[in-house]
Amino acid sequence: MIHSNHPCHEPHIYAGDFNAYTAEEIESHITPLDSHALFHRVGDTNPAHSPASPLTTATAPAVDFRGRLLLNMLNSIEFIITNGRFPSPSPTHRPYTFFRKLNTYSILDYNLIAKRYAPLIRPCQVLQNVLPASVTDHMPIHLHLDLPTSSNPVPPIPPHTSTARTLYHSKRLKDPKTKDAFTTALAKKVANTSHTFGRLTSQLLSSQITPQSSTAHHNANHHSSQNPQEAISKVQSSIIETQSEPSKKTCL
Question: What pTM, to 2 d.p., does this model score?
Fold first, then answer.
C-alpha cells in the first residue's frame, strides 16, 4: 500500500509495468486550478483499452479492472501519471509503452509521482524503438526531475554482490534453448532439495534427546511419543516453504 505522507523534500516515484489500462481518464483529484499547470495527458484511445467502470463489481485481475484499481489509488493519494503529459505532447503521437505482433500497441507502463511535485518535472518521454524486440516488448520511460542538490557528500553505494537472477517467462518456454535451460536449472534445484531432505532425515533418525531437567524430561517424553515419520514430514514441509520463497534465483 502506498501512502502520500512522505516528507515534502523527498519526492517518491513509482514506476513499472502495472499491466493496467487507463486510456486518457483524468485523475479526479486534479482541480481546474491544477489543470493550468498540468498538461492534458495523451493516452491510449483504443476503446478496447479503457479502464473498467467506476461502478464495476468485477474481481477478476483483468487489465481493465487493474486500470480502475490504479486510478482509484492515484485519486486516493493524489498522485499523477507523468508519461504522456510532460512536456505538452503532440496530439498525433501516442506514447505507447507496450507492443505485440501485428502492430498491436497499448500503454501498460507508468511513472507516478505526487501532484505537488509536478513543477519538478522536465521531460517525461517514452523511448520508443530504442530496444530490439528480442530483448523486451516494453519501451523504457525517461523521467527527468529538476531536484535541488545538496552540499553534503553522498556516501558510496556498496557493490551489489548477490547472484544475478535468471528469469523464465512461460511464453518463452516455446523456444527449445530456453526450455532446455529451464529444465536443467529445475532438475538441479530438485537434486539439491532431495539431498537436503536425505541429510535431515538421517539426522532426525539418529538424534537422541537428553533431558536437562524435569521439565525438559517431560517435554522429551511428549515429543518421543510422536511418530518419527510425522516429525520428518513437518521438517520437509518447512523446507519446501523455504524453497518457495521469492528470494530463490530461478523462477518461472
Answer: 0.58
| Residue 48 dihedral angles phi and psi, to the nearest 5° | -75, -10
The grid cell for 36 is 493550468
Which SS3 state, helix, strand or coil, does residue 252 take?
A: coil
Q: Which helix (H) or strand (E) holds 13?
A: strand 13-17
- Cα separation, 131 vs 140, in Å, equals 8
DSSP 8-state secondary structure symbol assigned to residue 175? S
Distance CA 6, CA 195 (A): 48
Which letter, b or e, does each residue of 36-75 get, where b requires 16 or more Cβ atoms within 10 Å of its Cβ?
eebeebbbbeeeebbbbeeeeeeeeeebbbbbbebbeebe
CB-based contacts of 90, cutoff 8 Å, min separation 6:
42
Q: How many CB atoms lie within 10 A of CB 226?
A: 10
Element holding 100 (H helix, E strand): strand 98-100
pLDDT, tens digit, 9 for 90 and up, residues 105-124: 999 999 999 999 999 998 89
Residue 88's pLDDT is 61
Name every residue whose Cβ is closer than 8 Å to that of residue 136 and which is 6 or more positions away in sequence: none
Judged by DSSP in three states, 241 sits in helix
